[in-house]
């Protein structure tokens, strides 16, 4: 097995986030599931956008956010995802490339526009996401290069992208390519509603030993395992997943790897502005420690530091120099 | 003369700001004029964008920023400017409308894209702007409705838009319509480089008594009057302009109206993040006080409060509730 050329290759939604502050009353009036991610069609997206206050646009997408964090920390990364040849597609590609991440999936032409996620951020910092998948849902399995997948130490997959059929087939193909090359497969469960739709698929993958590193928050852990109790949920999965990482918002995070348990407290934040991307950046910090071979507790600590940075401002892409922030930990 | 239906109608660039942090060394390497606004063509815009780090997109445009502030404070506003029928045009229109501002100029089709301003923000908070005018420079004089102009107490014009020929003709037409209806004309000088190109036009307008309210910063005042000394610059203009407002960054601002002088200190800011829009929001606060008939010193104070809000975060559109912020002043 050759030394991997990339630390992490990720497959995920190629999305531009359109975010605006909102009151809880507006979330209720619009019939939104606060704190969750809902898929919307073009008409509903237009309706929600019309109801939204003045907004700002920042590149997003769960796995892409994680790569932005990983690259800022110093990892060598590549992204696979589908944009259209429109202005948001240009914005997404620019931001990925400007972060030093390889991204060669060609833009689609003449079809659906680049994906947008309409995010309402309430005063408590929680984000309520409404995703119009657009071009992102048409990522064809043929866009995958098995050689590229085999060239990365870790293949990272975004659960959100399990919804549309073509990317799901692409991700199944990628898992096979990674495993054939002896690489690790990391998977983030993304959202409880996604688990409600695709939990059987996820449990099948896990039972078959196809997931080496699993990221979940405590709600997703409960949805996937059917255990309300956090420790019972961990116990139900730890024998099946070589590395299990569960985030618990202000209660910190927990990881189990090869029988070893580790816990980290949440990193203090002066003011939680917008929790969009908290889990994505936690995964970035953890994975960076993992690919560098750091102890489990330090991987968690890097995750907590990166998550704290992202929730202190609008948007799910880092503003501060993450490498500076983690320097005291990695020495 | 009937009571105006709008407090302020503004004519300005319809621009989406694309902003990213940058180091001073990058500003130098790219040959940019730090702190200024440079007009760029499509090729140079593409070159600068490629050199730019991961960015965020927030609606901008000097006069549009001022209206966003005015509307947030409670004024009734309308905007006139040219966008194209592309995603940035939709973003610009959404943000203007979501702020409660009337905006009926139809999008152009098949021509230049919506204007973009590539803004490099250095660690000292200063912004270096590179504007690709795109559709904005083709605002046709025919897009102006004299009845609409006559329906506003104040017509507000952006100096930046004096560069391209068609909008300049449109603004001359608007000045005539406003004056014929007995309305006030407010003008912001925008930039020293604009004055270098069009100072003669501006001085002619002022000498003819066509500008009722003039906004400038101290550098623009010096460029326009040819007087390096601040007080000499004020003295050279105060007899020609009914209301003159000059901002001086951290030194506060000065206004003269009908022989009365007033000064305000800069409002304290915990950390200057990005000065983009500082002058625009100062104008918003001042004009709001002016249309409400407040004393000159209070108008300045409202300007200082709004400017302080905008420089405490990225982007030139308000994040905090400006009406709340000024409540202690207006009672």
Would you give an account of this structure?
The first copy, chain A, is an alpha/beta fold. Chain A has a single domain, classed as Ribokinase (UDP-N-acetylmuramoyl-L-alanine:D-glutamate ligase, 3-Layer(aba) Sandwich). Helices cover 40% and strands 21% of the residues of chain A. The first copy, chain A, contains twelve helices and 14 strands. In chain A, the strands form two sheets. A nine-stranded mixed β-sheet of chain A has the order 6-5-1-9-10-11-12-13-14. A five-stranded mixed β-sheet of chain A has the order 3-8-7-2-4. At the A-B interface, strand 2, strand 4 and helix 4 of A face strand 2, strand 4 and helix 4 of B. Strand 4 of chain A pairs antiparallel with strand 4 (56-59) of chain B, so a sheet runs across the interface.
């Amino acid at each position: 097995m050759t030394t991997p050329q990339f630390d992490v290759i990720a497959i995920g939604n190629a999305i531009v986030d359109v975010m605006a502050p909102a009151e809880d009353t507006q979330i209720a009036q619009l019939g939104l599931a606060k704190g969750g991610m809902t898929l919307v069609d073009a008409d509903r997206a237009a309706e929600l956008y019309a109801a939204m206050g003045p907004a700002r646009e920042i590149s997003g997408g769960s796995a892409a956010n994680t790569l932005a964090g990983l690259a800022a920390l110093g990892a060598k990364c590549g992204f696979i995802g589908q944009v259209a040849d429109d202005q948001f597609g240009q914005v997404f590609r620019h931001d990925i490339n400007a972060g030093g991440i390889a991204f060669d999936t060609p833009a689609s032409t003449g079809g659906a526009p680049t994906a947008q996620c309409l995010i309402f951020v309430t005063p408590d910092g929680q984000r309520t996401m409404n995703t119009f998948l657009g071009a992102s849902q048409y990522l064809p399995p043929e866009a995958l290069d098995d050689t590229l997948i085999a060239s990365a130490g870790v293949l990272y997959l975004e659960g959100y992208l399990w919804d549309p059929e073509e990317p799901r087939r692409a991700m199944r193909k990628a898992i096979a390519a990674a495993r054939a090359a002896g690489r690790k497969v990391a998977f983030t469960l993304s959202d409880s509603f996604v688990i409600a739709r695709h939990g059987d698929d996820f449990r099948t993958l896990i039972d078959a030993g196809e997931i080496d590193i699993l990221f979940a928050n405590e709600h997703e852990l409960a949805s996937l395992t059917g255990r309300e109790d956090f420790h019972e949920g961990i116990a139900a999965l730890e024998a099946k997943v070589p590395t299990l990482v569960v985030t618990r918002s202000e209660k910190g995070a927990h990881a189990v790897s090869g029988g070893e348990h580790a816990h980290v407290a949440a990193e203090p934040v002066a003011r939680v502005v917008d929790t969009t991307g908290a889990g994505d950046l936690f995964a970035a910090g953890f994975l960076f420690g993992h690919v560098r071979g750091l102890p489990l507790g330090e991987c968690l600590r890097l995750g907590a530091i990166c998550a704290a940075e992202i929730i202190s401002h609008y948007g799910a892409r880092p503003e501060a120099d993450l490498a500076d922030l983690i320097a005291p930990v990695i020495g």
